[in-house]
Amino acid sequence: MNAIAPSHAAPSIALGDPQARLDTLAGIAQGLLERCRARGATQAEVSCSEEAGLSVNVRMGEVETVESTRDRGIAVTVYFGQRKGSASTADLRDSSLDATVEQACAIARYTEDDTAAGLADATLMATDLRDFDTWHPWAIDADRAVDLALACENAGREVDRRVENSDGASVSSNESLGVYANSHGFVGREHATHHSLGCALIAGRGADMQRDGWYSVALAADDLEAASAVGRKAAERAVSRLSPRQIPTGDYPVLFASEIARSLIGHLVGAVSGGALYRRASFLVDSAGTKLFPEWVSIHERPFLPRGLRSGSFDSEGVATRESSLVEDGVLQRYVLGSYSARKLGLQSTGNAGGVHNLQVAANAGDFESLVRTMGRGLLVTELMGQGVNTITGDYSRGAAGFWVENGQLQYPVDGITIAGNLRGMFEAFEAIGSDVDPRSHVRTGSILVGRMTVAGG
Questions:
Q1: For residue 332, which of 273, 254, 259 has the smallest C-alpha distance?
Q2: Residue 323: which region, alpha, beta or left (left: phi > 0; alpha: psi -120 to 50)?
Q3: Within a domain: residue 6?
Q4: What is the CATH number of the domain that holds 25?
Q5: What's the pLDDT tens digit per position in 290-312?
Q6: pTM summary value
Q7: Domain of residue 160, residue span
């Protein structure tokens, strides 16, 4: 099987003609598979990648860093029966490639059998390879990138005289090419670009200083927010946090702003991922088919979105991706599995080796303002701090900052607080999901209102 996604993309300034480079990487991969077979490997897989990027950072009107990168990597994994060995290199010389294969084989010969080891099942390999419009090189040089970053920071610093300092602004552009091939005969190619523009500003002085920022990401530079808009939003967010007040400790409704809400979905994904499940290190072990959310909650995986941040026809093992429900009518429909974890659990891969592809969380409410009105009184969270989430028990406790809400209106900023609960209970307490989707992540969700959490005031 030779599955290759078509593309009509323009050549890249940094990596050259993407199709020519992918042809070269595919040739290297297939040559390495032949070497693995010649050394007696019963199965083998090869990943080849090339990346190039430009990144600039400015602060207070001065250039801090300009960085140009170019990386490549070759990873070889062989199986002798159910014994596995892996090795990698960045050197494309024939002698180095040969040594990499030999090292992988040597490792495999001295490891123990693992009954779950091996390639994903051949019947699961992707055959319908598609182009998702993910290749949009940005013809930008360092000088232009610096100008954009300076314009972004300057726009923010001019918004309000209380913005007296800056953590800087940045512009980055990256291109990546990848080929995955295995001894089932599968050869898959992927290529994508990723661009970003961000700014972080500081308002106030001394102990009263507050920091906040904003950023924009896209596969195509034309889809980025304007530099001036990013800077102004960073300034407005920083200024809005000045003069925070205390709130009494208690149990309140908590509204997670959309840019924060996706972390809740991330905790769900982590808890239903194969590694945590077969190690029994998750509070959602044996939870497939059980009701975790109110019946109106649905979460769908959509790997075929044009210009999706995580679109793909195959996962990191060549398994075909598919559109499917993760949660439907509040019920967990399946786990998130690659082939290894699936075998450990006695199940089949869900095409999620390497992660999920474009999760879309269905909304049941209106925009952000309507969610604030719906909450009436409670806490809006716009920033989370710390790592206080226990995946084994589901216990959740994190530092937070945001705004107090009364009578459906934002009243004043708050910080230095802690919000706590248990993820299972928090999932059950979802009261609304807004239509204000933050597009800057492959987890696409609006703001999420949780009916009640413990809030410890500063």
A1: 273
A2: beta
A3: no
A4: 3.30.2290.10
A5: 999 999 999 999 999 999 999 99
A6: 0.93
A7: 18-239
